[in-house]
């Protein structure tokens, strides 16, 4: 528990995902005795949100702060133990808050999926976070909780069953339904725009180990997922768009863990498209679609046109029906170096990017505030898998619609 006035402040409460998160905290995800407040740049919008959330949150205070206003953010951090932020693109709006948290010892959770920004923040503020005791946890949404916590769950089960962890894990997306929001589109476009101007950044974005700490010892060449037949899953596979952030986070987790999953640990993610010629055709179509999209977004006038007239705008996103009918089903296959095999399934109800992400992020903040002992987990930049323990998995399964299940184990 905390001696500060608030356990958690939700910064960006009025964003598309922030509103879902606040509704969730006010309602089904409510945590007993949680002292929380909402924050954002517009008092008017925050008041409107509070009214729409109903009677149970009328005592929840409002903070007005712009993401570039260091004084206001310092005042906010002086009054809370932890900030959850949804103000993105983080590479555009996130640095001041992260710096203030790192320097003031305020715990922090976000939803960024921008590896280049995380890398820069670690380089700039890791020493501050270690000195102040602030635990900084990026990627607490669909990127990269199901992947990172899914691998951790698989490794814990492998250890129980085989006495050793897997040195190779593959994630395959079996099924998924959901759509993007304006904020996510804006983050993707910002990364593509930055990369278009900067060849060093393009190289960095291709580096699967870009988030591993200097001196990490995992040197194994990782498999690159292109359209291919996956014998182990008996299906064609296409690239999975979120692998660009998830693989970096999982490899960072392996590098930070003590002991690591494996010194030479292999991890990849792909999208299952089915067996036979239909599966092959679908995999090729998906890959082509991805290439066309990235190609179009790399051309400034087309990017402008798509942003202006086609993609959702900041503040927009999937409808309530789309959120409720969304879901995802991830399959993991792990192998130890002795040939043992474990299969795991991780699912989430509701659409991955919003309904499910809001709950994962809320529970990440609550778990960091309530379950993660400062003496055992000191200040620094952590990943979901390295900071959270079984309490978080319990919260996800009990309160956030996720499931973690071992499907089979075979001794080698
Ligand atoms: N990792 C994941 O799985 C995942 C999933 C979903 C979203 N995301 C990320 O989460 C972020 C939010 O997404 P979204 O769709 O909810 O975005 P959104 O609806 O566009 O909201 C962006 C928020 O940022 C606020 N904002 C912008 N400039 C600000 C400033 N100068 N000071 C203070 N606040 C400012 C906006 O305030 P107003 O409300 O006042 O306009 C709004 O609340 C994005 O970065 C997105 O990429 C990640």
Structure description:
This protein is of the alpha/beta class and 412 residues long. It has two domains: 6-141 and 356-397, Rossmann fold, CATH 3.40.50.720; 145-351 and 402-410. The protein is 46% helix and 20% strand. The chain has 16 helices and 14 strands. It has helices at 16-26, 43-53, 70-78, 90-93, 95-104, 115-132, 145-162, 182-197, 199-206, 243-256, 276-297, 300-310, 320-325, 352-370, 384-387, 390-399; strands at 6-11, 36-40, 62-64, 80-85, 107-110, 135-137, 168-177, 228-230, 235-239, 266-274, 327-335, 341-349, 380-382, 402-410. Strands 3-2-1-4-5-6-13 form a seven-stranded parallel sheet, sandwiched between helices. Helix 1 (16-26) crosses helix 14. The protein is globular and about 55 Å long. The N and C termini lie far apart (46 Å). The model has no long low-confidence stretch (mean pLDDT 94). NADP nicotinamide-adenine-dinucleotide phosphate (NAP) binds at residues 12, 14-18, 40-42, 45, 66-68, 86-90, 93, 111, 113, 141-143, 181-184, 187, 314-315, 317, 353, 357.
Give the topology.
Elements: E1 6-11, H1 16-26, E2 36-40, H2 43-53, E3 62-64, H3 70-78, E4 80-85, H4 90-93, H5 95-104, E5 107-110, H6 115-132, E6 135-137, H7 145-162, E7 168-177, H8 182-197, H9 199-206, E8 228-230, E9 235-239, H10 243-256, E10 266-274, H11 276-297, H12 300-310, H13 320-325, E11 327-335, E12 341-349, H14 352-370, E13 380-382, H15 384-387, H16 390-399, E14 402-410
Parallel strand pairs: 1-2, 1-4, 2-3, 4-5, 5-6, 6-13, 7-10
Antiparallel strand pairs: 7-11, 8-9, 9-10, 11-12, 12-14
Helix pairs in contact: 1-14, 3-5, 5-6, 8-9, 14-16
